[in-house]
Amino acid sequence: MNPVHRRIAGSAVCIMAAVSIAACASHPKPTPVASAAPPSAPPPAYTPPYAPPPMAQGPIGPVPGSVQDFVVHAGDRIYFDFDKYTLRADADSTLGAQASWLDRYPQVMVRIEGNTDDRGTREYNFALGARRASSVKDYLVSHGVAPSRIETVSYGKEHPIALGGTEDDYAKNRNAHTDITSGARPS
Known about the structure:
About 40% of the residues lie in helices and about 15% in strands. The chain is an alpha+beta fold. The chain has a domain at about 65-180: CATH 3.30.1330.60. Strands 1-4-2-3 form a 4-stranded mixed β-sheet. β2, α4 and β3 (about 150-155) form a beta-alpha-beta unit. The radius of gyration is 49 Å and the shape is elongated.
């Protein structure tokens, strides 16, 4: 090829390259378009996190026939006046409830514990505590509780429930406590 043709051919190649570059610059490559997703079902309804079912509610309160049932529904302690073993009028409702409760649960055995305040001699207080326990036993027996289900004991001034020297403390310690010794249902 002669030099003129070569120059023309080289110029032609340069021109084509320039046209080609210009064409690319003026027409950017098309951006690919995402294909439209096919229509889908509506989103599922909201489902809250798992919550366990509510627990079944049993009876509220103490188990019938238990020591707690006796304490709550009958009462386990009555009080006495100073140097007395006769039952006070306010003891009648508690002892009546005890007799009724013991009638419902004939397998239950009890111990009546007689107590005193700390005034007086040890011997005198043991004797007074024994008379207080016997007064309670006599009441329960007269209301239908079998004597064989009841034992008595005197603690005198040995088991105070209030430690102090006020009249209120003394009054709390002058009592007879009915303790269930056997036959009650577990709580």
